[in-house]
Specification:
Layout: H1 2-21, H2 23-31, E1 35-42, H3 49-68, E2 76-83, H4 88-101, E3 106-110, H5 112-125, E4 129-132
Parallel strand pairs: 1-2, 1-3, 3-4
Length: 133
């Protein structure tokens, strides 16, 4: 139980700092968006589902907490989750779909194999990303 609380606190603090000081924050200000969009590509089914579901629950708690306190610079955070099924090819497909439909300001990725497959696309599109592996 203490590990879970520590992880939530650490994750919330780290992600908040990441969002506030990211170069994308300035880009977002130029767009004048009312919502900060975070795309989460997680293994919600399959062999690594335990990690993906745990991360999803932590992200939900963090977003609820931040939004309850007024958001980030007055902007609420919106998160959308997609299931990579621990498969880098599926994750690439999800990323391309997210880019066209959701236009995330940030990405949260779980699993190094998925992150490594997405790395060139993330760099090419200049989207800040946070990976837990």
């Amino acid at each position: 139980m203490k590990k879970a609380k520590f992880f939530r606190l650490f994750f919330t603090t780290f992600l908040l700092i990441f969002i506030l000081f990211s170069p994308a924050c300035k880009k977002r200000e130029a767009k004048k968006e009312e919502v900060i969009k975070i795309g989460a590509i997680l293994p919600l089914t399959g062999g690594a589902a335990e990690f993906g579901v745990g991360n999803k629950n932590g992200i939900i708690l963090m977003v609820e907490d931040i939004n309850a306190k007024g958001g980030v610079d007055g902007k609420k955070i919106s998160v959308f989750f997609e299931d990579s099924q621990s498969d880098p090819k599926i994750a690439i497909s999800i990323f391309n779909k997210m880019l066209k439909t959701d236009e995330p300001d940030f990405l949260f990725i779980c699993l190094s194999s998925v992150a490594m497959a997405l790395k060139p696309l993330i760099e090419q599109n200049k989207i800040p990303a946070f990976c837990v592996s």
